[in-house]
Design goal:
The complex is a heterotrimer.
Chain A: E1 5-7, H1 12-19, E2 24-27, H2 33-38, E3 46-49, E4 58-60, E5 64-68, H3 73-78, H4 80-85, H5 87-93, H6 99-104, H7 107-113, H8 120-127, E6 130-133, E7 137-139, H9 140-143, E8 158-164, E9 168-175, E10 182-191, E11 194-200, E12 208-209, H10 211-219, H11 244-262
Parallel strand pairs in A: 1-3, 2-3
Antiparallel strand pairs in A: 4-5, 5-8, 6-7, 6-8, 9-10, 10-11, 11-12
Chain B: E1 3-8, E2 11-16, H1 23-30, E3 49-52, E4 55-58, E5 71-73, H2 87-94, H3 104-116, H4 124-130, H5 142-156
Parallel strand pairs in B: 1-5
Antiparallel strand pairs in B: 1-2, 3-4, 3-5
Helix pairs in contact in B: 2-5, 3-5
Chain C: H1 17-21, E1 37-43, E2 49-55, H2 57-61, E3 65-70, E4 106-107, E5 113-119, H3 122-129, E6 133-138, H4 145-149, E7 164-171, H5 173-182, E8 185-193, E9 205-211, E10 216-221, H6 226-238, E11 245-248, H7 264-276, E12 280-283, H8 286-292, E13 299-307, E14 313-325, E15 352-361, H9 375-393, H10 397-404, E16 413-414, E17 420-421, H11 426-436, H12 442-451, E18 455-464, H13 472-477, E19 486-492, E20 498-502, H14 511-523, E21 530-533, H15 551-578, E22 585-588, E23 591-594, E24 600-602, H16 603-611, E25 626-631, E26 640-650, E27 655-666, H17 673-693, E28 723-727, H18 745-762, H19 773-780
Helix pairs in contact in C: 9-18, 14-15, 17-18
The chains are: A alpha+beta, B alpha+beta, C alpha+beta.
Chain lengths: 263, 161, 786
């Protein structure tokens, strides 16, 4: 790791100011950032620890679940309210990484980083979440802009994420056998945002919506409706664990299982 | 250099570290607590698991400065002050759940957290999934699973509460 | 005299565990020396390149830097030696290119060390290493044995034609050819044994220290065999005599073979400590381990079996090409020859066998022995071939095995590939394993799985291994450059407590317990009274270390020999004290007594007399009760057994799940059943890892694609099932314990059982390892192999 200055601001304003420094880097739980720093793949001037900002907690209303950006995966997974309102979201949080990752990793960190194999982006996109930041509210449809790329500005900090409560939803994940990240993760939802299917882990550009699956499920919400619906492998990842063709196949299998789980 | 004040195994310590120092480096190099091990550099093996404010964390994936003000428990602090072993340690020995011993501190600390956070009890399958963050190359996990299963019985027994 | 029996056959809890479960183990990285500096090795990120220039000026000027060294600084010291010389068919010695400590002129694999930076802190060394300017010019490169042997292939070492290290053979080619001509059928199978990365959980560490006032060097290192390191590094690399070099291996966090070898980093830190007169410590990062620890396996073979119409094996022919990597690691040449080809008879009566083995260099990390070493490759080949023969003859996999097993009454059995098996009962282990696995109930389980849309399969392996290495005279004739005896020093202290100094070294096997049990049992003392000392050339007379499942069979036998001397001397002392003839003294349960009387002396009393020799036959025998023995085995030992694996495949995803695994092994006399069970379970887990998960993947140029745990699939708890272990033991006939060894049986026996099960589930003839979801899915869907 290259050395850097460490800052732990106590207010959003101070954090925003600290992030204005050239090559500053925000750190939420650090579950992705610290491994990246250890590999010397990033050389920040200052690491801005957001854990002093509060930003934790879960609020459930009749039609939405709002989660503070610094809420850990473990807290979301264990939340009785989330389990009641959007069980698929709690279940997703409960299978992110391993339990040590879940104890420290946060929803804000996951969405800000937008790792192409992260789980939360699939939920945010499929449920049509709204990402609230220090500056504005961004709809998920406008937020994800490709692998490790989002609509966030350099000094913009996610404060909370709000998920509309769907009628039906589920997340299923086929893990990379080695890293255990999503090789194909599919979140299916039928709710206020419509029938939406978001896939993580598979695409070269990060999380994406699957128009073919969405159309099939909008017409007939059942696993059987997806049988034979193709996934183009043109923009899918290919590596030693899974060719693009195999990933395309898994998209269908995992999506069907997700629909079956959603009921 | 930043100063970190933390409680480790019940004792307070204040240490100056570079900002880039990992918690595991602080424990091993500054405090001489070499029971916490480093087995990989991609946050996957779990040899470095300690408890931070009561829950398990990989001390290789946490900056020392992030532990400022935290209470840390390492494998050295798991047994009672009089040396009485924690039931998890006892069951690891009883069930031959360790061979070379290198993964053991992290495995034990992760297992204690796993059992603590599942008071309803864990099936064999749940124990296996619960160990996703810890690698062992010696045992094939068979006896580790047995040991954790036995330990949860002791940890949840009325007398242990 | 013990309240609880703790001798041979008991399973007391391990003596070493209290420190390990309490975080008080003492691994090499836990050690630090006053004034210590830190070394970072700059390694090649190219598979093959010419070193045009190395500019170290900026690195030298960086904060905290103490020294920067490249190969030119090491001109006076030797390369890493190879411990085994193979001769080709034509009698010529193998090609043995220099293995420099730091790359000289060229780099030949990703991870090849180029320079070392030593600084006051590890971070400073790492910061400075980035300031090294290394100008490399890429050269054409190769990663596979197939590419290495192509005409016009790039040469890994200039002047080594066809990249060939050796072209070796064993057996009777003419007899095999004749048998093939007249056979009912010849079954052919092409197969590969995938390259693995050992990944002991403790990365390698080396800490060199030098005392400029005495001239003494000390190396603390993660080693399975500190005496071997002292011998190789002292004599061949640094030119240091034994009495100036101490090698200490404290607690070792797993090895599986990868910590046998003498590595460059050990020589670097020891040499640099002398140069700088300061301690120098190097600790591998895991991603560094992936490209600097010796890899394992990596064979490409064609196997053929000639059979008669009844499925009786008539002759076998094997052609194997083994990947050596870029340089010869310490014991690499022996693995695909004497640890592999000699095992090709397996448990069967195949009367004639001919095997050719070519070893080739590639631009990959050197390959050497990894848990099983040669024998897993042999068992995979033989057992997969036997399954294929059964399939092609329409015979049952179990029947064909029974038909060809070496009969119970045929031991000692001379195979056509040099080995003579001393004992075994393959029918017994087969029957027990089939019972344990409920083989008979499998069809019902398969049908039940089918109803759920899953594919069930069952696989069987009736393997054999040779271990307990090895008779020195024999291995010397075969090219070993060392003896393979073992040494034990048994020291009975004046008050009767006992220290045993052994040249073997535990890296997880529990020697402190097993050996103490052995000594407690033989000398009739409580277990708590015996301590095992190992891992330090400054304390132990000599030794060859722990590998090849040899510690109990060879090291334990040395202890028995030393204890025999203790008892013989004790009898003389007792005879003097009891005024009897030494011939009339019996020793039992820790007591020397005059036969047929109640006159006796305890071992403690005899020990005290030996050290306080006031009333002592001083003219006949010396004071003290301290005996050393060197034990050189008369033969290998031959564990074997039957492994049965049941799997279920999800045809939609290609995911294979282990339903259960049953192993019944013959490991000879068991000292601690709990430890044996643990050893087998751990070995099976590595075998399942090889069969389903693990693969050291290189691209065609030699870039390592699976260079971290992010891409190299290590078995985790939820990848495995319970592993049921049993034994059906026959005794080794040529060592005093009857023990055969148990450390490698799991890794040797299991892969063919797993792949047999996968093939059975898929209804296919064969597939190569690992059976990953992607590969299985491709097979189910008729896709070309990935």
């Amino acid at each position: 790791m290259y050395d850097f200055t460490y800052a732990k601001p106590a207010s959003l304003a101070a954090a925003t100011a600290a992030l204005a420094t050239e090559d500053a880097k925000a750190m939420a739980g650090g579950m992705t950032l610290i491994p990246v720093l250890k590999q010397r793949l990033n050389k920040p001037s200052v690491v801005v620890d957001l854990s002093g900002l509060g930003l934790t907690g879960i609020t459930v209303t009749g039609d939405s679940v709002t989660i503070g950006a610094m809420t850990t995966h473990a807290a979301v997974a264990a939340s009785a309210e989330v389990k009641r309102a959007i069980p698929a979201l709690a279940a997703l949080a409960g299978i992110i990484g391993d339990k040590e990752v879940r104890h420290r990793g946060t929803i804000g960190g996951s969405l800000a980083n937008n790792d192409p194999a992260a789980d939360y982006p699939a939920a945010a996109l499929a449920l049509g979440a709204t990402i609230t930041t220090s500056k504005r509210a961004i709809h998920a449809d406008d937020y994800f802009q490709g692998m490790f790329t989002t609509a966030l500005e350099a000094d913009e900090i996610i404060t909370s994420v709000s998920f509309p409560v769907p009628a039906k939803a589920a997340y299923e994940k086929f893990k990379n056998p080695a890293s255990r990240y999503a090789m194909v993760g599919v979140f299916v939802a039928k709710g206020p945002a419509g029938t939406r299917v978001a896939i993580t882990g598979a695409g070269q550009g990060g999380v994406f919506r699957h128009a073919g699956f969405e159309a099939a499920l909008a017409a007939n919400w059942s696993a059987a409706a997806l049988t034979g619906v193709p996934t183009s492998d043109a923009d899918l990842n290919s590596d030693i664990h899974a060719s693009a063709e195999y990933r395309a196949h898994l998209c269908n299998v995992v999506a069907r299982r997700a629909v079956a789980a959603a009921g | 250099m930043p100063q970190v004040t933390l409680t480790v195994n019940g004792k307070s310590a204040t240490v100056e570290v570079e900002a880039r120092t990992l918690l595991v480096e602080l424990l091993r190099e500054k405090l001489g607590l070499t029971g916490t091990h480093i087995g990989c550099d991609t946050s996957q093996c779990g040899a470095c698991v300690v408890h931070v404010d009561g829950v398990s964390a990989k001390s290789c994936t946490m900056l020392a400065v992030q532990a400022n003000g935290c209470a840390i428990t390492t494998i050295e602090g798991l047994a009672a002050a009089d040396g009485t072993l924690h039931p998890m340690q006892e069951m690891f020995r009883e069930h031959h759940a360790l061979q070379c011993g290198f993964c053991t501190p992290g495995m034990v600390m992760a297992a204690v957290d796993l059992v603590n956070s599942n008071p309803q009890g864990l099936s064999e399958d749940e124990i296996r999934h619960g160990l996703e963050g810890n690698l062992c190359r010696c045992t094939g996990y068979h006896n580790i699973v047995k040991a954790i299963d036995a330990a949860q019985g002791l940890m949840h027994a009325p007398a242990a509460q | 005299m013990n309240a609880v029996f703790e001798g041979i056959g008991a399973s007391p809890r391990r003596k070493e565990d209290l420190r390990f479960i309490s975080g008080r183990g003492n691994y090499t990285d836990d050690m630090n020396r006053p004034g210590q500096t830190y070394a970072i090795i700059k390694r090649s990120d190219r598979p093959h390149a010419k070193i045009i220039a190395i500019d170290t000026a900026a690195a030298r000027a960086a904060p905290g830097v103490v020294a920067v060294y490249t190969s030119t600084d090491l001109a006076a010291i030797g390369g890493l030696p190879c411990g085994w010389q193979i001769h080709s068919k034509d009698g010529s010695p193998m090609a043995e290119p220099k293995h420099p400590i730091l790359a000289e002129g060229k780099v030949r694999h990703v991870g090849d060390p180029i320079a070392v930076v030593i600084a006051e802190t590890k971070q400073q060394a790492r910061d400075a290493a980035e300031l090294l300017h290394i100008d490399l010019e890429d050269l054409p490169s190769i990663a596979t044995v197939t590419d290495a042997m192509k005409p016009g292939a790039p040469e890994v070492h200039d002047g080594i034609a066809g990249n060939q290290c050796y072209d070796w053979h064993l057996g009777d080619a003419d007899a095999v050819a004749a048998a093939f001509k007249s056979a009912h059928k010849v079954v052919t199978l092409d197969l590969e044994n995938n390259r693995l990365i050992p990944n002991a959980m403790e990365p390698r560490v080396a800490l060199g220290d030098y005392d400029r006032f005495s001239g003494d060097y000390t190396l603390y290192t993660t080693s399975q065999n500190p005496h071997v390191i002292r011998l190789l590094m002292g004599a061949f690399v640094l030119g240091l005599p034994e009495h100036r070099l101490r090698v200490v291996a404290p607690d070792v966090g797993g090895g599986f073979g990868s910590k046998i070898y003498h590595y460059a980093e050990e020589a670097i830190v020891t040499w640099a400590a002398g140069k700088l007169a300061r301690p120098v410590k190097w600790t591998a990062d895991r991603s560094e381990s992936f490209m600097s620890d010796a890899h394992g396996r990596d064979h490409v073979s064609t196997a053929q079996m000639a059979v008669d119409a009844d499925g009786k094996f008539l002759a076998m022919k094997v052609h194997t090409v083994a990947n050596m990597g870029a340089y010869l690691s310490t014991f690499a040449p022996a693995v695909p020859t004497y640890l592999y080809a000699t095992l090709l008879a397996g448990t069967y009566t195949t009367p004639v066998i001919y095997v050719e083995v070519k070893a080739v260099f590639t631009n990959t990390v050197p390959v050497d022995a990894y848990r099983g070493a040669g024998r897993p490759e042999a068992s995979f080949l033989v057992e997969r071939l036997v399954d294929t023969v059964a399939l092609e003859l329409g015979m049952d996999r179990v029947d064909i095995r029974r038909r060809n097993f070496i009969p119970r009454d045929a031991f000692p059995y001379q195979t056509p590939v040099a080995l003579q098996y001393d004992s075994g009962d393959y029918f017994a282990t087969l029957d027990a394993a089939m019972k344990s696995a409920d083989w008979a109930g499998f069809p019902a389980r398969k049908a039940e799985a089918k109803a759920r849309g899953k594919l069930r399969g069952i696989g069987i392996s009736t393997y054999l291994e040779a271990c307990g290495i090895a008779p020195s005279k024999l291995v010397g004739q075969l090219g070993a450059r060392a003896g393979l005896y073992e040494v034990a020093n048994v020291r009975v202290h004046p008050t009767g407590s006992i220290s045993v100094f052994t040249g073997t070294h535990s890296h997880g096997q529990g020697h402190e317990t097993t050996f103490a049990q052995l000594v407690a049992d033989q000398l009739g003392v409580p277990l708590s009274q015996v301590d095992i000392v190992h891992g330090d050339t400054g304390k132990i007379p000599f030794g060859m270390g722990t590998y090849g499942s040899r510690s109990l069979a060879v090291g334990g036998s040395a202890m028995v020999k030393a204890m025999d001397k203790i008892i013989a001397k004790g009898k003389k002392i007792a005879a003097h004290l009891l005024e009897a003839s030494a011939n009339d003294i019996e020793f039992k349960n820790g007591v020397f007594s005059v036969a047929g009387t109640d006159r006796s002396k305890t071992l403690g009393e005899i020990a005290l007399t030996a050290y306080v020799p006031h009333n002592y036959p001083i003219e006949e025998i010396e004071p003290g009760l301290d005996e050393t023995a060197f034990y050189d085995p008369a033969n290998f030992t031959f564990p074997g057994g039957c492994h049965i694996c049941e799997v279920e495949i999800d045809p939609e995803t290609g995911v294979t799940t282990i339903i259960n695994f049953n192993a019944v092994d013959d490991v000879g006399r068991v000292v601690n059943p709990m430890i044996v069970e643990g050893q087998v379970q751990g070995g099976v887990a590595q075998g399942i890892g090889q069969a389903l998960l693990e693969n050291a993947a290189y691209d065609a140029s030699g870039q390592l694609l699976s260079g971290s745990f992010m891409d190299y699939t290590m078995p985790r708890a939820d990848d495995l099932s319970n592993i049921t272990v049993g034994t059906e033991n026959t005794m080794c006939t040529h060592n005093p314990l009857g023990s055969k060894g148990c450390g490698e049986v799991g890794a040797i026996g299991s892969p063919p059982a797993v792949i047999g099960a996968v093939c059975d589930a898929l209804g296919i003839r064969h597939m190569n390892m690992p059976a990953t979801p992607q590969k299985v899915w491709a097979i189910i869907n008729g896709r070309p192999a990935a």
